[in-house]
Design goal:
Helix content is 76%, strand content 0%. It has helices at 19-35, 44-51, 55-71, 76-82, 85-102, 109-138, 144-172, 176-196, 213-232, 242-264, 272-275, 280-308, 313-340, 345-366, 377-401, 404-447, 457-492. Helix 3 packs across helix 6, helix 7 (144-172) runs antiparallel to helix 13 (313-340) and helix 14 runs antiparallel to helix 15 (377-401).
């Protein structure tokens, strides 16, 4: 590898490519990888109708994508050290493109989960290659507070822009056009990387020896089995279902094999040392709590806007732009207080949780049929502001405290909660709560009406709307109490997210 002298320049490009556009080519690649998801959350309802599958099926498919993203972390630097940047980008774009080609022709949920997992793996493969090369441009001093603020703004913030664009595309065309657009973008990445980039290595070459690919599969089976239990337990009647029992047994067996292999392998996929890092239980608890709180937006808010306010898909797209504003503010605020003001990670974490809980508290008072879309703007800004603050604060804290050898393994472990089990647990809690409380409120409201009123279809709709509003209000109230308890726990335990 030829080390650079003087001002930084991207050496991965051929010499005739102007220096001024090299950074922006990487940004273009990032845009393509962020849009190309394999499974598109905004298209889930259309996929549900096309394939005649349940909403739990499409949610399981989306979790497959997220777990695929998570499982790339432990092998990220091994792949980067083995292959040139151009090769990695072409392989990642090609794999993700093949997944986008395949999805519209598959109607089996299990196969779609596997394809989604592969798509998530290749998506982070390409995203990591872009981010790892532009870090010297974003932060020449390699300040990870600056860099991770940019990373999470792109990963968690800009994705709302792509969601808004995809909603428009679905509205005027169909969900399969998302895959066609993704294929076009990924072909562009392959073409530009082939023409403009060289085989220059940013790291000394290291062989792919002792890669624990079996460990990657076993850990994936473990977490996907748990997600299956959390996602389908209520639908399949918990342990009365043989599928739930098989999934739990598979999770236990794969976890046991993983721990046995960790003791006997020299280079396991995740080492014991990663589980022994201080503050890891606190981080897992924080991300689990955040996942449950954010599930209120995915379940309660979506139920409110669909079943009570009857928003169409375009109004849902408008809300995505508001979420982007909140994410941008969260990234900017996190950068300022962590880098400029040197605040503690714990302080920013508390502020983030306070913003998310404020969103829940405001929604408690907004759940009425008279609420207009503008009243949802501030709560959504607060929710996404807090979401970004928490992710940035805790990830910067991990980078500052964990040994680099285990850093990406720890990100994978946290991903089991952060992008894995937390969301389906929250979904299960809220769906169960909606079902139980809806019956209670329907009985209460119906008993207070005259029988003659029930002959009117309008009054039947009114009863359903009032019962749903009361149900969602009550659940938002319980969620607010839970959120306040989380904040108090962090404030009372003063060593939470404090470096020793």
């Amino acid at each position: 590898m030829a080390w650079q002298q003087g001002p930084f320049r991207f050496m991965t490009f051929k010499e005739w490519v102007p220096d001024k556009i090299r950074f922006w080519i990487y940004i273009l690649f990032l845009i393509a990888f962020q849009f190309s998801n394999g499974m598109y959350f905004t298209a889930m309802s259309q996929m549900q109708g096309s394939f005649s599958i349940t909403m739990n099926d499409v949610k399981m498919m989306s979790h497959g994508v997220l777990i695929g993203l998570t499982m790339y972390f432990p092998v990220a630097f091994r792949m980067k050290a083995r292959f040139p940047n151009r090769t990695n980008l072409i392989v990642a774009a090609s794999g993700l493109m093949l997944c986008n080609i395949a999805v519209p022709f598959i109607d089996t949920p299990f196969v779609l989960v596997v394809v989604g997992f592969i798509a998530g793996f290749f998506r982070l493969y390409g995203t990591f290659e872009c981010f790892s090369n532009i870090i010297p441009k974003i932060s020449p001093t390699y300040n990870y507070g600056v860099f991770l603020a940019f990373v999470f703004f792109v990963v968690l913030g800009v994705i709302h822009v792509f969601d808004a664009i995809s909603i428009q595309l679905i509205y005027y065309y169909d969900w399969q056009h998302l895959h066609r657009l993704a294929i076009a973008l990924l072909l562009m990445v392959i073409l530009l990387a082939t023409i403009l980039m060289s085989d220059f290595r940013t790291m000394p070459r290291k062989p792919l020896y002792a890669m624990d690919w079996l460990g990657l599969i076993l850990w994936s089976v473990f977490i996907l089995s748990l997600i299956f239990v959390a996602q389908y337990a209520y639908q399949l009647d918990w342990l009365n279902s043989p599928y739930i029992r098989i999934a739990l047994g598979t999770a236990c067996i794969s976890l046991a094999i993983n721990f046995i292999r960790m003791k006997n392998l020299r280079h396991p996929f995740i080492e014991f040392a990663a589980f022994k890092v201080k503050r890891l239980p606190e981080l897992l608890l924080a991300f689990l709590s955040l996942g449950i709180l954010l599930a209120s937006k995915n379940v309660l808010q979506n139920t409110f806007t669909n079943a009570v306010l009857h928003f169409d898909i375009l109004n849902t797209g408008r809300l995505k732009w508001i979420e982007f504003i909140g994410a941008a503010l969260g990234a900017a605020f996190s950068f300022y207080v962590l880098i400029k003001l040197q605040w503690r990670h714990r302080t920013l974490t508390i502020i983030g949780f306070a913003a998310v809980v404020a969103y829940v508290g405001m929604m408690y008072f907004l759940v009425t049929p008279d609420t207009n879309i503008e009243k949802l703007y501030l709560p959504l800004i607060l929710c996404n502001f807090g979401h970004l603050c928490i992710f940035i604060a805790l990830t910067v804290f991990i980078q500052a405290t964990a040994p680099f050898k285990n850093y990406f393994q720890i990100l994978c472990i946290l991903g089991f909660i952060r992008t894995g089990i937390a969301s389906p647990i929250g979904d299960c809690i809220y769906q169960h709560g909606i079902t139980g409380l809806m019956n209670k409120h329907l009985s209460s409201i119906g008993s207070n009406l005259n029988i003659s009123l029930l002959d009117s279809m309008n009054n039947l709709k009114m009863i359903g709307s009032e019962a749903m509003s009361a149900t969602l209000t009550e659940l938002y109230g319980y969620t607010f109490i839970f959120g306040v308890a989380v904040i108090l726990l962090i404030m009372i335990k003063k060593d939470f997210f404090v470096k020793n």
